[in-house]
Structure formats: structure tokens, C-alpha cells
Task: structure prediction
Amino acid sequence: MPRFINPFTDVGFKRIFGQEINKDLLIDFLNSLLAGEKHIIDITFLDKELLPEFKEDRGVIYDIYCTNEDGEQFIVEMQNRSHAHFRERAIYYLSEALVRQGTQGIEWKFNLKAVYGVFFMNFRFGKEDKQFRIDVELADRHTHKQFSDKLRFIFLELPLFTKEEDECETDFERWIYVLKNMETLQRLPFKARKAVFERLEQIGNLASLTLEERMKYDASINTYRTLLAVEEYEIEQRKKEREEGREEGREEGRKEGRKEEKEEMVRNLKQLGVSTDIIAKATGLPPEEIEKA
Result:
């Protein structure tokens, strides 16, 4: 029986990272993610829904949307299923947040604040990927020198994180290990090293949920498991279709081979002067095909 919530569910993810009362968890995670380059002191949660400027346009709803004390913005998303345009969706999300900064009045002079996108992915971009963390920024194609720091995409391909508890060397790796294994753990590790994990243990404990919260969580876990089941079914169907396609190809090849053998037999029998009727009986081919051979 699980002791802790599954952080990959919508309710679980937002309980850990999307509540004002628990924002110290998100701050600590972001600081571990950006260790050595940034230290966030405080964050303010922003409205997760950006309504369209015009009626015909699309709005945007983020999982978590916040800003730090310097005005930099952070979009944190959990994605359990892949789709064809996931990269484009990430670009659109961050661009929308960037463009909204231009609505500050006529005195605004493009003094943009950086927008960071952090995408937890419970799937892989592709078979060619080898690294768990993909970090994308605007840079010169040849020198790789940073062109601008205003857009930053960090994709975390969770299936590629395979470290065990004793192999985690940084706070960031410890965070990922706990999140990835949380639902199967009976205790959270690393509490002696860092108090934030003790806080996470309290917040993530199923016993700490109210009746209403538990009902919402149960509905969320059912949705999550249904999505996984659908994903597994689609993968199996695609494998089956590929196998059937290969088998059909092999069968077509065998049919073509048998046809060529019969045509060769017909030519040999005709050279020996055997009548068309006898050749037809021997090969099962109609007389008109025998005449053409």
C-alpha cells in the first residue's frame, strides 16, 4: 500500500510545487536545478491562465507559473504523455509569457525579464536521446556563445534517470530520485542531509490529506493510470502493426517467389513441347498466363 502521493498526477504535482504555503519546496527545487548560476530567495505565484488578447486566439493554462524577486518568470510543467508537437508547445508557452511583458505601457523599452521553462517528462523525446537533462538556450550556431538569456528551456526526461539512492551526488539528483520513486517508498531518504526532504515527507504523506483532498487525489491517480494504460496499449498496437506489416511483406515476398518459380517451370515445359492444357493442370495457372510466359 503506497504511503506517499504520486507526484506525476495532477493533484500530487500541484500539492508539492503549486501551493503558496509550500513554496519553499519549489524554491529549493529550482535552486538545485540552477545551482551555481542562480539563487532564488522568494517567489510569487502568478495566474496560471493567460487569457487570449483576442476572442479568436488561444489562451494558455500552465501547471505552475511564478516569478522571483528579480521579476524573472518560471513555468513548471508535468507532462505524462508525448505528443507530436511537444517542443513547439514549449516554445509557444514561454513565448506567450515573454510577449505579455510588453503590455506595460508606452514607456516600456523591451527590458525583458528572463522566462524559464522546466518540463518534467514522463516519456522520452526519442530513442536517440542519451541524456536525462536537455538544457536549451539561445546561442550562436557556430561559436555556441550565448546570444540571449531571456529564454531557457530545461527538459527532464525522467525515464533516462536511472541513479539509485546511494549514487545521487547533488541536491538536484536527490530531488529527481525522490520524485521518481516517491510512490513506492516507505520513507523519504536524504532527510538527515536536508530538512526540505522532511518537509516533503510530511506534505506528500497520504495520511495528511483531508477527505476532500483524498477524493480529488484518487480521481487524479485514476486519470494518471488510465493515461498510462492507454499509452501502453498504443505502444503495443504500434508494435503489433509493425510486426504484421513485416509479416505481410514477407508473405508478399514468398508469393512473388512462388510465382517466379511457376513462370520458370512454364518456360521449361514449353521448351519441351508440353501442351498448354497439361501445363495448366501441373501449375494451376490459367492458359492465358501460360501463353504470356
Summary: The beta strands are 43-45, 49-50, 60-61, 64-68, 73-79, 115-121, 133-139, 146-157. The first helix runs from residue 10 to 17.
